[in-house]
Amino acid sequence: xxxxxxxxxxxxxxxxxxxxxxxxxxxxxxxxxxxxxxxxxxxxxxxxxxxxxxxxxxxxxxxxxxxxxxxxxxxxxxxxxxxxxxxxxxxxxxxxxxxxxxxxxxxxxxxxxxxxxxxxxxxxxxxxxxxxxxxxxxxxxxxxxxxxxxxxxxxxxxxxxxxxxxxxxxxxxxxxxxxxxxxxxxxxxxxxxxxxxxxxxxxxxxxxxxxxxxxxxxxxxxxxxxxxxxxxxxxxxxxxxxxxxxxxxxxxxxxxxxxxxxxxxxxxxxxxxxxxxxxxxxxxxxxxxxxxxxxxxxxxxx
Length: 302
Prior knowledge:
The chain is of the alpha+beta class. The chain has 8 helices and 11 strands.
């Protein structure tokens, strides 16, 4: 397994704080997000590496294992159990029952011998069971894709996975699919598969939690005199009454017309609509006369 320097990916030192990691992740995730680089395969790969680095370094336990074992951090627990219970020998260091005599290269040699790499000295016959490696994948979807629960087929590591995506999944959310990671060694259990969702806002709606935000172009006459309009929501069209003398930037709320709440069937956020008043253009001479008359009436306080 190739070593990936997560600190280098996020341009951090090893003594970086949690706040440093969070700040760096947001910076580079925004820079390399697929929505901003739609046809850039290198940016897509970089975005995946950034998510992987953040997943490890932002978790204190995973970071501790990574700092100690490097590329073999996924198998830290198995190594320590085997080290403690089986009394392994490695090179000229003797039994590993006490202290921490292994160097980084020793750890790598040990794991290579466990997983079919170079020969290494094990005292048992190779019967120790090891859990498979956890895998990470990213699934890119549009906002409309997660408005309703749907089924998808994914191909990860040569395996076809039938996945049910619950309505309301959030951007950046990670779910675990048990036993769909790397295969176990010597009959050990498979690892797990972690899928992170990358969800883009639609051209019509912006999502914030369970609420949706959109704007509606309101003509001047309806804004002044009031009337009825038809607006789009995620699940169809809705008629609204506009009050007379509605001002530009007025916001109205449609309760329960927002985004579904994750794993809470029947619960929805709200939809907020901001009116943007559109002035008429290409006025006729008659319209200009009428607007002039209205202006005179207004200016004279009538």
